[in-house]
Amino acid sequence: MENHFDTIHFRHTLEDYHADFHLHERFEIFFFISGNVNYFIEKKVYQLKYGDLFVINNREIHKPSILSNEAYERITVHFDPAISQMFSTESCDLQKCFLDRPIGEKNKVSLNLDQTAEILGLFYRLGRLNQNPNPYNKMLKISCFIELLVFINKAFLRGDNLEEYMSIPGKLIPILDHIDENLDSDLSLKRLGETFYIDRAYLSRLFKKSTGSNIHEYIIYKRISKAKQLIAEGYNATEACLQCGFNDYSNFSRTFKKTVGMSLRDYKKTIQPW
Predict the structure, then answer these.
(1) CA 1 to CA 112: how far, in whole Å?
(2) Residue 108: beta bridge partners?
(3) pLDDT band at residue 7, thresholds of 50, 70 and 90?
């Protein structure tokens, strides 16, 4: 079971780090330490500050945008959703903060100074246990991880998580809504420009400036995210391909594997009950 989750302490600078949109197969816990970074999750952009905590499920696309050469330092925990499901009870759902909310909403979990210190202690304890994987430490690592999930869900359920984020430019909001609602349609820059009476080059620059990446990559990840949802709901791969705007199955299969990190066949296996 120890291979089903991991905790990593990252430190990068602008010169040695680049990230585009990504979509994990595992759930992610993200804790920001330092840097000059904007963080994009679905349609929101957060200007990160020390102690920011985010929870991200396996359907939410996200990416950091590093704004200076100041070191970008953060702690992440990636884990198989089946673990949190296994240890959940009827009265204590450890997946609640990841799944009991709309996509791209309530990702940020607010912490006070005492809670920030407490969660840092849990992260560092996980890291130490991970460095010495003897049989007893494996059990302690699982125990610490469950304690971390309980801590985050209790903070999430307090109900006073007021998200502070930077607004996407007004001109982009209806375009992003249109993309969400028409993933099976032509979403080329040409068609988007014609639909919204906006110059294609200007649209491309505006999106790049707002997110740090290009709109084509965003659309690809949104389509793959929807495909994952459809397959989990029981649709076959061909149906998911067509409903997500991939008219060529071979291209869909290649793009899915490149984006998700596993083939369609392997992904289907992961959505079976543990």
Answers:
(1) 32
(2) 54
(3) low
Q: Residue 16 half-sphere exposure, CB side, CA atoms within 13 Å? A: 8
User: Residue 58: CB partners within 8 Å, gap ≥ 6?
Assistant: 23, 24, 25, 26, 27, 81, 228
Q: First and final CA of the chain: distance in angstroms?
A: 12
Q: Report the alpha-carbon distance of residue 69 to residue 18 in Å, rounded.
A: 12
The pTM of this model reads 0.83
3-state class of 45 per DSSP? strand
| Mean pLDDT calculated for residue range 115-143 | 88
Coarse DSSP helix, strand, coil percentages of the chain, rounded to the nearest 5 percent: 50, 15, 35
Of the candidates 33, 39, 16, 13, the residue with the CA atom closest to the CA atom of residue 73: 33
Tokens 């949190």 label which residue?
84
CB within 8 A of 66, min separation 6: which ones? 12, 13, 14, 17, 35, 36, 37, 72
Which residues have CB under 8 Å from 189's CB, separation 6+? 200, 203, 204, 215, 216
> At residue 273, does pLDDT exceed 50?
no
List, in order, residues 6 or more apart from 91 with CB less than 8 Å away: none
In degrees, to the nearest 5, what angle opens at C-alpha 43 toward C-alphas 177 and 83?
A: 115
23-46 b/e with 16+ CB inside 10 Å = b?
bbbbbbbbbbbebebbbbbbbbbb
Task: Say which amino acid occupies 244.
Answer: C
